[in-house]
Every structure is written in C-alpha cells, then in structure tokens.
Records
---
Amino acid sequence: MADCLVERDGPVMVVTFNRPERMNAMGGTLLAEFLGALEEGRRDDRVKAFVVTGAGRAWCAGADLQAMGSGGGDGHSRRFAAVDDIGEVGRVVLAMHHCDKPLIAAVNGVAVGGGFGLCSAFDIRVASEEARFATIFIKRALAPDCGLSYFLPRLVGPEKAAELFYSGRMVDAREALALGLVSKVVPAEELLPTAVGMAREFAALPPAAMTYTRRALRRSLDGVGLADQLAFEWAQQKACLGSAEFQEGVQAFLEKREPDYSKF
C-alpha cells in the first residue's frame, strides 16, 4: 500500500500520509511519494492548491526512530542523512518552499520533531482539537532539522522558539492557535472539509496573481532588503497589470459581477 494517498477534490490535490501504524513517521517511501505528489501537482495546471493530512491519530511523528533503532531496517536512517547536503527531507522542504501553489496542512494529530518541521513549511496550518506539536529534538539528543529552525522563529518569534526548542515540550491545539502556529482550530470531523474548503476558495482566485503573491511572501522570509523586495514586487505587479486575469477583474468590477478566473 502507498505511504501517501493522493486524490483530487476538484482543483485541490489532497495528500494523506499513510503510515498510521508508525504514526506517519518519515520511513518507507513516504517522503519520496510526497515529493512526487508535489511535483505532479506543480506541473498540472488543473491543480490550484494542496491539502496534506495524516491517516490515523498522527499528522507526522518525524523520523522513524523505530527503524533507525533497529539498524535502519528499511534503510531509513541512511536515506534520511545521506541523500545530499540537505538530506531527503530537505529536498521536500525546498520543493514546498518553491512551489507556486498554496499549501495547507490539515493537522489531525501529533506533529513532532521533523514532522513539526515539515508542518512549519506550509503556508497555512488548520488544526483539529486533537492536534499537538513538539520540537522534541532535544529530548532525543538531536539538533533541529527539516527546516524547523528556519520557520519556527518566523512563526512565533525567536524567544518563544528558543523556549520550545530548549524544552521540547508538547503544545496543544489551543496554545498553538494563541502562538500563531496555526490559523484555526476545528473539531476533528470538520478538519478536512475546512481545509479543503479554504483551498477551494484560493483555487477560485486568479492563478498568476496567486503565484506572484506566494513568491513575494516566501522571498520576504529570506532576509532580502526593502529596496530589493520593492523592486521584486513592482516587477510582478507589472506582469499582473498586463495580464488577461487583471482585465477580467477590472471588467467584472465595471459590470458589478463576480470575476470568473476559472478559464485561466
């Protein structure tokens, strides 16, 4: 059985991490299949947004320590560290960072360690009331990875990030909402409909403008100067101003109707 299940809900690609017996830890072929789904959705113009959730009671429990502790029975420990200078999971995080389509995590359960890192790379996180988060690395004699040391300070600020890293403690869904780790918390049965509904709303918006918006947001995380960012914004704005999408938006405004971006 696949370690990632992929289905379409209209313009939304829904990916489910599918190793519930291992709490969706990053073993087997989970990372490779997720990267493949990202690449497939990125190339497919019919896909406008992604939603990623987990099977069972976890979103992703990070590294598969059970496999690593037993000598890396499925080769996980070797693959996790030795793919290249950033590791296999690093390649996935970079692919997410450079994706031009919105990425929403529907966090159904625990997201800890590398799973928390992967989760932090999404644009938006919607959590069920059962969701929990922990850096946990320090408790396993490990340093942060999977991009968490990059994203977490940007989400909660450096001081709070330090406290979460140094303690490794668990954060429940309500605290995650208060900290700004997630955008909303909903009952478990409403999680996937809420996340997919949000993705469908994004999918109905002009795709080129969405791409440019996401690029500007992601670029701003990389410490560029204000003048450089202003130049980047203006170059993208000029592209928007000359687009058919913009003409449709203006025409719809003049005709007092909702714009239809489905043809783009």
Note: The two ends are 36 Å apart (CA to CA).
---
Amino acid sequence: MTGSVSGAAKSLNVSQPTVSKILRHAEDQLGFELFYREKGRIFPTEKANLLFTQIIPVYEQLNELKKYTVMLKSTNVGRLRIAMTPAFSLQAVPRALAAFNKKHPDIPIEIETQHASEISRLIQNSTIDLGIVFEAVSQPGLEIQHLGQTEFVCVTPKSHKNFNRKISLEDLATLPLIRLNAKSPLGHMLNKKLEGLGLYPDGSNIVAETYHLAKRLVEQGTGVAVIDKITAYSGTKTQLRFHELPDLEPIKIDVISRSNDPIISFKQDFLAILKAELITYAG
C-alpha cells in the first residue's frame, strides 16, 4: 500500500529493520517470495497480489470485530438461553419473556422444553444458561437458586360437585387418580407420599408423563389428577374444579445455572420478571 519498506514502517510506527524482519519471516512461513527488489525498491509478486485480494476481507472482518468488542463493552448485548420443564412453558415463562423482550429488544432469546434431568445436562455442557425446574437436584458444577414456590392441587371435572374445597390424601385413595410418571420430580414426590401412607388409589390405570397431559385427561372425564398449581392455572379452566391438598408440602421452583457462570446483568432482569409472574401461582 505504501510502496516501500520505509513507508510501511512509518505507517505502522515501527522501525524499518522490524518491517524487513517480519517480511522475511512471512516469506519463510509461506514458502514463496512476496516481493522482488529492483533499483532499491520492492514490488509485489503475482502471488502477493493474489494473496492481498484474500487479505482485504480478513482485515475488514477484524475491523468489524474491534467495533463489536467496543459495543459489547458499553452495552448489555448477549443472549438468553433457557430450558424449562413443560409446566413453565404453558403460560408463566412466555409471559415473562414477553415482558423481558420489551425491556431488552436487543437480546436474542433461545428457548427449549426438556425434562429436569436433561436440563441439568444441557447446563453442564454449556448448551443453555438457565434452567427452570421443580425441586432441583444438587449436582457437581451446578448452582441452584430458589425462585419461589407453588403447591399441589387436585383437579377434578366440574361435574364432580361432591367435594369440598379441600381434599385429603385419604380421599385420593377412593378416586380414579391419573398418576404422574415417577421419573418426574412431582410424580416421585406424590407417589412416595401415597405409598408411605399405604394409600393406593382405586382405578389408577393411567400414568401421564406430563402434568399438562394429566390435566387434559381430567377435562375428558377420564379421572382426577394431582398436579402443580402452575399447570393447573395455565390455559383453560372452565371445565375443571380445583381443590387444595393441605397434606402435601409446597413445591420449590428452582433456577439452575453453572457454578462458574454467575447470573448477572440482563439474566437477573429476566429472573426478576419471572419471579413476579410466579407470584400468581404461589402456594
């Protein structure tokens, strides 16, 4: 670009011998000459001209990278990668994300729904940043933060009018209970509680993998179900009745993250918005 070694040295604010040394090193590494000398001046070889056409876009990309790093330093630009168990995807998290997106329209959002065990694995291998689950299990390399709590409710068809507002576990033993899969945290908790009391519900021939599916089966008159309040109060409720279960303990709502990746900046904003949304379903 400058036509001489001295001109390049001046442009780069280094000494002429330094430029000559770097040039010789570059030619040694490449295995071919970049310039030829004539009458005290240097001229690019044909290969140098061909190489230069490829170098120009690389320099342009480097300049753009520099601009981008300056922008990252002065803004909250990043991305929010979340995974959640199905219950949170029905209403709570979508509402929180809508509010978050209005506040941070420049933040890309990636969302997926998974089982709790898979969410922990995705966080460990850095595929996602935050996991929203019930009753998180402590594992090496993971940080657990309690975001709030909810509770179990018994969902019955609206046609069942012979129950009070509250239902005991003994009442469940006489009902066609749609059980939750024991692989899920809530299913495991509920089944363990019922078995510990020696209560085995009559007609429990259906096991649902998700709490939302159990709720849908109740709507079809298939039986009754014990599910979390978040699932119960999300979406349609007109054909259902909800009953408190005072014999069961509250359910913790947890956020999982990597131990070496603190939740800061806009991620804290999202969790604050979600926490406010979850108050609706608090126990």
Note: The domain at 152-249 is CATH 3.40.190.10 (D-Maltodextrin-Binding Protein; domain 2).
---
Amino acid sequence: MKARSLSRATYEDLMKVPENLVAELIDGELYTWPRPAGPHARFSSALGMDIGTPYDRGRGGPGGWWILDEPELHLGDNVVVPDLAGWRRERMPEIPHDHRFIIEPDWVCEVISPSTALVDRGKKMFIYARHDVPWLWFVDPAQRMLEVLQLAGDVYSTMHVFGGDDVVRADPFPAAEIDLASIWGPTEE
C-alpha cells in the first residue's frame, strides 16, 4: 500500500504509522505494508539462522558479520526495511544503540510477496545500488526461488538462481549451507 500526498513524506510521517505495519520512506513517498505472513516470516527467520550461525555467531564458519532481521536502514533520504541485512564487522564494529542503521549493509535480502514485489525489485533495488550494497538476494517463497545478485558498477547482475530442493552455498556466505527444501515449508495442495 502506498500513501500519496502532495508534499514529500518525512520521517515524522513514518513514525506516526501504527506499529502493526512496516513503514518505509522511498523517494519521498511513504509506503506501508502489513507485517509478513507466516510463510514469509518462516523463510526469513530460517534463512537468517542458516546464515547467522556460521557468519554472525562464528559456529562452523568464519564469523565476522552481523546478520539482522528487519533493520531500519537510513540510506540518504530513504528509509527502507529489508527482511534481512548483513554487515561485515570491520565496517560496522558495533550495532547501533537505537533502531536506525546509517552504515550501508554489505548484503540485503528481500523476501518477495505479492504486495511488495514491484517496490522490492524496482525502487528498493535502485536505492541499494546507489548506496553500493554489494550483494542483494531476492527470495520468492511462492515460486520457491532464491536469486543471488551482485553489484557490478551501478547495476546488479544475477549470479545464481536456485530453487526447489537445492542445497545452496552462495556468496557472500559460501560457508553457510542452505537447504531450501527444509525451509520453504509445505507445498499447498
């Protein structure tokens, strides 16, 4: 859902949005979304655990990252909330004490839903590219697809597309084994 007005939306407008909604400021417009549905939240949580164990916690992997659910990223005048984001600790040694993240992440993941697909694959992707986020993943639970993109210059290039029952080891997290079949959830009959 997009709220339209004649003037540019501000951070104050965003702060007035009820807490049961996700709110983002994109190119001066306020976007609001319902909280993720169960399958969306399940996939995002499971993916965060698969990546976070070796990269954030350093168990069975190199560590050296912060992997976070739904951080509020302040990228220039835009405020976006990806499903997951990761920072190399050498670039962001400490997690901010409030809810605002002003250091661009090294990786973001957007779990696509019908209501967010156009904004995630359009406006937000361009914002991430303008702010030099090197890795972007799109996950579509309905299509059972994981797409890995890498920034090349000022545009993203698709590096890999995984789906179905694939077991994935993908950049920037090659030490994380992601068994897609175990986290898609049951198929609807």
Note: The longest strand covers residues 155-163.
